[in-house]
Amino acid sequence: PFGGMQDCFKNYFFRWRHATPFGGMHFFDWLDFGEGRDLMETNDTETMIFHKHSDLKCFRESFDRKKVHYFDDEEREKHEVVLKPSEDGRELVARYKRSDEPVPENYEDDAHLYVWDLENKLYVVDHNWDSVKYGKIKHTAVLAGRPALSAGEPVPENY
After folding, report:
1. How crowded is residue 149: how many other Cβ atoms within 10 Å of its Cβ?
2. Taking the mean position of all CA atoms in its chain, how far away is CA 54?
3. Of the ranges 71-75, 102-106, 111-115, 153-157, which one carries the lowest mean pLDDT score?
4. Ramachandran sector of residue 24 (left: φ over 0; alpha: ψ -120 to 50; beta: rest)
5. What does the alpha-carbon distance between residue 43 and residue 41 come to, in Å, rounded to a whole number?
6. Which stretch of DSSP H or E encloses residue 11?
7. Helix, strand, or coil here: 124?
8. How far is the first Cα of the chain from the last one, in angstroms, to the nearest whole number?
């Protein structure tokens, strides 16, 4: 859930692993709800084991800005797509299953992304995604980190 902050985890992971007494919390729970939450608020560089200049940006606010929003079932359902034949039967048209609306046109500079899950359900997230509220969308977010058969950006035939 914390995209691109792997370097920051070293110190927090070390502290979590060597906490006495070990509380038994999972690492991310410890960061969000346990003792790690306080450490991340203050970012006490004096007691860090592996101290690098980049550690100075390892505050909770940095982690929170870079979080990946995982879709819940309702959000995922809104983006589920079915492929149906066009009226003349010559093409397949992608339509949102919930609303039966066609998926908007895909643009090269603002491409949609698709994810196909292990249950053969297809999801498409178009340019109407609320990036202000949730940030940039990532493929792993659609299935909340679960495995996928395929993922990418659909490219229209005329490119």
Report:
1. 12
2. 23
3. 153-157
4. left
5. 6
6. helix 6-17
7. strand
8. 34
